[in-house]
Amino acid sequence: MPVLVMKFGGTSVATLDRIRRAAKRVGVEVAKGYDVIVIVSAMAGETNKLVGHVEETSPLFDAREYDAVVSSGENVTAGLMALTLQEMDVPARSWQGWQVPVQTTSAHSAARIVDIPSENITRKFGEGMKVAVVAGFQGVSLEGRITTLGRGGSDTTAVAFAAAFDAERCDIYTDVDGVYTTDPRICEKARKLDRIAFEEMLELASLGAKVLQTRSVELAMRYNVKLRVLSSFGEQSDEAGTLVCDEEDIMELNVVSGVAHSRDEAKMTLVSVADRPGIAAAIFTPLSEAGVNVDMIVQNVSDEGRTDMTFSCPTNQVKRAEEALTKAKDSGSINYHDLIADTDVAKVSVVGIGMRSHTGVAAKMFKVLSDEGINIKVITTSEIKISVLIDRKYMELAVQALHDAFELEKAA
Ligand code: ADP
Ligand code: ASP
Ligand code: MG
């Protein structure tokens, strides 16, 4: 039997009624002759609640116990989904990550899947089971501890299962009906894309478009998984939603195809550090050892042997970064006059494969922001994206203005 992977996100399983609606969709695919692997998220809001419990109990928590707690939301929905399917006379059972087992690295709260043996589930399909409901977001380390894959990780579970079972398609059911030119929640002119190239989706995801976890797009690209994003509330047809595919399979190629934003950014500046060989390593090694995810980096021109170094990182890692840098200063490995944290910034990016062959995108982006009176604090570019750090209060305005200026509401 061909295998289909169907993943339901938090809003799609937020109530028993929604679980029933999702189960009906699964029933439709079973009736078509598929063996279905259903990946479920926790009910909407549940993971946030569990993270809150952990942080309240233990501010500097043990990451292994964090994973034990926050992975539990998915266990509930997996069992409920299997029960719902059984009530509909669809042979189904639930699997927690460790039962499959979904083998991962030991990087708690940010683990990577290393193996998904298919024997157990395949044997059950052979015995007449039609649906394997798997708790997303979780796995088990070689040490036998429960791990989680980072926020939004159920998308990655889904794509990894699609690759492991050579599934015909991996359908990601969510609360929007596909991938849009930008977040439809902050720009009403956002346009749904019928197709998007893996590379563009990868950039959009890593720049903040949370519709797919970045790692899930990486895996789909590597293992050539046919990946589709669609609404769990809309029509159920083979054409619905957005297909994430190879660049060659896309007819319309815009210079810019999307605008992404990331709200939780912080900008940190080390004022007046000695400009000498090895200074960047002396600053960024302790940050990396402290688990700080540094994103943008800017080093100013040197003035009388001293310079300013600016970098960005997620807002919730500012304390950790400050601690690591203060320790490095105390130990004498670096020396700076001041450390300034600006936690009211956001990152806005434009993405498009067409940028490889077209010039002028950066100039246009900067002009649009300047016309809106928005000051740019940091800039970074790659072959197919340009990102800027701006004051958070202008984030929505910047997204809307860029969406208008690059005419993203119109198809190419
Ligand atoms: P789920 O719980 O189903 O995993 P998420 O909340 O993780 O859903 O992801 C879906 C959300 O992603 C949408 O509600 C939307 O606000 C947001 N989003 C951000 N950028 C985009 C985009 N370019 N296209 C579609 N959705 C986007
Ligand atoms: N429940 C997890 C989260 O909220 C994983 C997921 O939904 O993808 O991050
Ligand atoms: Mg998600």
Automatic annotation (TrEMBL):
One of its GO terms (cellular component) is cytosol. ATP binds at residues 7-10, 174-175, 180, 185, 210-211. InterPro entries: AceGlu_kinase-like_sf, ACT-like_dom_sf, ACT_Aspartokinase, ACT_dom, AKii-LysC-BS, Asp/Glu/Uridylate_kinase, Asp_kin_monofn, Asp_kinase. Coiled coil: none annotated. It catalyses: L-aspartate + ATP = 4-phospho-L-aspartate + ADP. PROSITE patterns: ACT (PS51671), ASPARTOKINASE (PS00324). Residues 268-341, 350-412 form the ACT domain. Pfam families: AA_kinase, ACT, ACT_9. GO terms for biological process: homoserine biosynthetic process; lysine biosynthetic process via diaminopimelate; threonine biosynthetic process. Keywords: Amino-acid biosynthesis, ATP-binding, Kinase, Lysine biosynthesis, Nucleotide-binding, Transferase. One of its GO terms (molecular function) is aspartate kinase activity. CDD domains: AAK_AKii-LysC-BS, ACT_AK-LysC-DapG-like_2, ACT_AKii-LysC-BS-like_1. Transmembrane segments: none annotated. The keyword Nucleotidyltransferase does not apply. Its EC number is 2.7.2.4. Substrate binds at residues 47, 74. Pathway: Amino-acid biosynthesis; L-lysine biosynthesis via DAP pathway; (S)-tetrahydrodipicolinate from L-aspartate: step 1/4; Amino-acid biosynthesis; L-threonine biosynthesis; L-threonine from L-aspartate: step 1/5; Amino-acid biosynthesis; L-methionine biosynthesis via de novo pathway; L-homoserine from L-aspartate: step 1/3. PANTHER family: ASPARTATE KINASE, ASPARTOKINASE. Belongs to the aspartokinase family. This is Aspartokinase.
